[in-house]
Design a protein that fits this description.
- The N and C termini lie far apart (59 Å).
- The radius of gyration is 19 Å and the shape is elongated.
- It is mostly helical.
- It is 72% helix and 0% strand.
- It has one domain.
């Protein structure tokens, strides 16, 4: 049995709690759904194209970030909060990395190739 240090009621389905303002639900839940639907649409519309795949991965990682943030807001147990916080810290850099990679694939219309090529491009553009 887990000792409850917080006297707030437990959330329903990990997402819905009486302690969370309704504005959080209006800012998180529709965005989660829109990101996944838009990502699937982009992936299906341009099957096999690198920018579409990268944009899908951007939307998917952003949706995961928003979903975990919704759990973070509604949780009242410290073990759930710590786990979700650690997961958010792993997912958040993926959003930024996929955004950067999507931009690169849209501008150059090609893949990085390898880490060596990526470092050479970074060195060239940073001058």
């Amino acid at each position: 049995m887990i000792l409850a240090l917080c006297n707030l009621p437990a959330p329903h389905y990990l997402l819905f709690s009486e302690n969370v303002s309704s504005i959080v639900y209006f800012s998180h839940h529709p965005i989660f759904g829109i990101a996944l639907i838009l990502g699937l649409f982009v992936l299906i519309a341009g099957r096999g194209r690198l920018p579409n795949l990268m944009l899908f991965l951007t939307f998917f990682s952003f949706g995961a970030w928003v979903f975990l943030d919704s759990i973070f807001w509604a949780a009242n147990r410290s073990d759930v909060i710590m786990f979700v916080w650690a997961a958010i810290l792993l997912v958040e850099p993926l959003v930024y990395a996929f955004c950067l990679y999507t931009l690169h694939s849209l501008i150059d219309e090609k893949d990085f190739g390898s880490v060596d090529r990526c470092l050479k491009d970074y060195w060239q553009y940073s001058r």
